């Protein structure tokens, strides 16, 4: 008669299994009882218990990403990031001003002067978030491209202010639809292009994106070189452009445009600091308060500057502040990036609430300060 091994009592652990039986992490204990037991399986006329010995998982090895991010003292990283955002924000604002000046004679783009920067900037944001390593892997480069350049290249305040100064509701709705739909569409296209670039690098050139974090020294070098380039370019570019303007070699950009570009980093850095200290607060379900506050503050300041511009016609500084600080303070690309991220991770209702709060509150602010309410005409 075959001898059957008794199942151990509930408070007694069975004998340690042999190494051969632990290859799959399981052992089998047999019982001669006929009653069914949960989580058991029957082998012939015998009942088998499946039990698992789980050794405690080894402590995770510190990743190279964490080591690279931790190698920066927090406030030093914040200060250097502010400089990178300021320098790249200057470039983003300069690109926006040049685009708007280039299309000023075009009837369509003169009416929708924010369309080209917002759509192109959203496309670049979608591309950059796919092809640039994560922020904790390459902090200075990521923040300079996505926060500084794209954030300053696109402008939320110009869209809302232009929408609210329209003379008819049909024109206002047209601006609302075009200004809201096109950036999302172009962001998705940019993200798909980024996926294509990553696929080509992995399958054509044999350089998968996942290998980037394993080279912290190279990442530090890339960040350092890019940061130095940004700082030098931010210092020299305005000086060179102003010299060329004085010599009459550049006619697309005026001295007021240079002023607009030079003061833009103040708005970009303010937006970055708001996002650092207010975004992703667990007490508010990770509601991006920083981006929301930057956009609403940009709209408020822009509508005030517009009214002051209409009152003081010969003072160009109101225009400079409106298109410089306000344009760089508010952003469409970051807003679209957050909306698509919320929608992609299943927080669809949250995405719609965030979009409605951003647009509706901004419209209310701009509506209160609408120049037509105070008998001021807008050309």
From TrEMBL:
One of its GO terms (molecular function) is fluoride transmembrane transporter activity. The chain crosses the membrane at residues 72-91, 112-132, 144-165, 172-189, 224-246, 258-278, 284-305, 317-336, 348-369. It catalyses: fluoride(in) = fluoride(out). Coiled coil: none annotated. It holds the Pfam family CRCB. InterPro entries: FluC. The keyword Mitochondrion does not apply. Keywords: Cell membrane, Membrane, Transmembrane, Transmembrane helix. The keyword Cell division does not apply. GO terms for cellular component: plasma membrane. It is a multi-pass membrane protein. It is found in: Cell membrane. Belongs to the fluoride channel Fluc/FEX (TC 1.A.43) family. PANTHER family: FLUORIDE EXPORT PROTEIN 1-RELATED. Fluoride channel required for the rapid expulsion of cytoplasmic fluoride. This is CrcB-like protein.
